[in-house]
Every structure is written in C-alpha cells, then in structure tokens.
Design a protein that fits this description.
Layout (H helix, E strand, L loop, with lengths): L1 E3 L2 H14 L5 E6 L5 H11 L14 E4 L7 E6 L9 H4 L8 E6 L13 E7 L5 E6 L12
Parallel strand pairs: 2-5, 2-6, 4-5
Antiparallel strand pairs: 1-7, 3-4, 6-7
Helix pairs in contact: 1-2
C-alpha cells in the first residue's frame, strides 16, 4: 500500500508510472468517485510529454492523445457510463494497443473483458482525505514499477 497525502502527490506518483509506460501497456484504475484516478492519469500523461489540461473522460468516454503531443499515443478511457460490456467493441480499445497505451478508469464496467498483463491500480480515500494506492503488478512490469 502506498499512501498519497495530496492530489499533488498522486499526480507525482502518476508521473513515475508514466515514465515507465510503453506501447501495448494497459493501466486499469479502480476507485470511488473522487479517489484520484484522473489525477494519476494526469501525471502519467505529463510524463509522456503532454503539456495541456487533462479532463476526466466521463462524458466523452475516450479521449485520445496523439503524437507529437505525447511520445506514445494514449487512449484515456472512462467506462463509468458503459451499461453493457458489449459496448466496448464499438470503442475499438484493443486497436489502440498496436501503437499506443490504454489508461482505463472504471474497468469493472467491462464485465469479463480482460486485458492480459494489465497493471491494476486501486485507490481508496482515507479518513484523513489521503489516498491509499494498491497495485497488482503483472510480470510485464517487473523492473518497471516505480517502487522496485
């Protein structure tokens, strides 16, 4: 468990993760509304070179970030509004992995859909408004996870 005491710490940890991201990576981000998922993504995107604002994709569902704004193409996905996992096929998420990265908030809405070798991150809000981050680190992340 990693304790993140502020949105700034959360974003900085996201930057450490983002520095290790490469083509074909999938990061699954779970947690309640306001837990800091988008703050982590904001850090990841900044580490990948993005200089602008990073909104939550809650309404757009997918926000693409393309070169030259980032060193690797990224699809920032929010599945919160997905009612049926079959809707995922319409989003073409797996196609994004040929030359990019998927950052997926609310992956539990995907039902049985599994992304092999995905880095799974869960955020919980602590009683002092800090965030508690836990991760399931797949073998493909050995040597890349920021805390090794």
């Amino acid at each position: 468990m990693i304790l993140l005491r502020s949105a700034q710490e959360t974003q900085h940890f996201g930057e450490a993760i983002g520095a290790a991201l490469g083509i074909g990576d999938v990061v699954l981000l779970s947690g309640a509304l306001g837990a800091g998922k988008t703050s982590l993504v904001r850090g990841m995107l900044h580490a990948l070179g993005f200089k602008g604002e990073v909104p939550s994709p809650s309404y757009a569902i997918v926000i693409p970030y393309e070169r030259p704004d980032v060193r690797v193409a990224v699809a920032h996905v929010d599945l919160y509004r997905i009612d049926d996992p079959e809707q995922l096929d319409e989003l073409g998420l797996d196609d994004a992995l040929f030359d990019g990265i998927l950052l997926i908030e609310w992956p539990e809405r995907a039902g049985d859909k599994q992304w092999r070798n995905a880095l799974e991150i869960s955020l919980k809000i602590g009683p002092d408004d800090s965030r508690r981050l836990t991760a399931v680190i797949p073998p493909s992340w050995e040597g890349r996870w920021p805390l090794q």
